[in-house]
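Dear Dr. K.,

Following up on our conversation at the group meeting, I've run the structure prediction for FMN-binding negative transcriptional regulator from Protaetiibacter larvae. I'm pasting the input sequence below exactly as I used it, so you can double-check it against your construct before we proceed with anything downstream. Let me know if the numbering doesn't match what you have in your notebook.
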Amino acid sequence: MRHTPHYLMTEVDEVKRLIRRNPWTTYVSHTSAGLVASHYATLLEETDDDTISIVSHFGRPDELAHELGQHEVLVIVQGPHGYISPGWYAEGDFIPTWNHVTAHLWGTPEILSAQENFQVLHRLTDHFEKRMPEPRSLHIDEAYAERVAKGTVGLRIRVTRFDARAKLSQNKPDEVRATIIEALAGDGPYADAALAAEMRRSEDRRASGPA
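The predicted structure tokens came back this morning:
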């Protein structure tokens, strides 16, 4: 990512929160054949320390294209993002920008056993189905689910380092940030409730100061 130290997000708990809320991630590998990118749902493994561990699964034969487990991969977690119009700035300020919350994670994938992979698939399904009024589960027909699971490869990445940014108009005056939040929360052409919520949260954290 562009070197912007004033937007750095260094708290591990904030990166974990970003992963929890934005599970559709991009996996990038620098392979012997060149760069390869794929997109898969990802779950954070909950820990009480400052380690970050994620699990996912690749559909075959994607694991071969990525040479999965042979080298480090980059995982991109994209949170809320959107266009910020200079029409929301003070008079005379006319340069637009794009606000975003993004994290880059690095680590070497550990290939899971078939049993571990099936457990991850159970977790993924249960995690997303729990919001449904009548959740479905792989328990409905585990024999069939296990046959389908053979077309996937499970992985765990223990993140060795990360680079995260929360660019939320911190460089603008208080009144301009308030206007931006109001516009994002409204019904205009660039309204974005999720990005407005991130900015409000940033404002609350700024107001509360260091813990």
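Two things stood out to me. The beta strands are 24-31, 34-41, 43-45, 53-59, 73-84, 97-107, 110-111, 152-158, 161-167. DSSP finds six helices and nine strands in the chain.

Best regards,
J.T.
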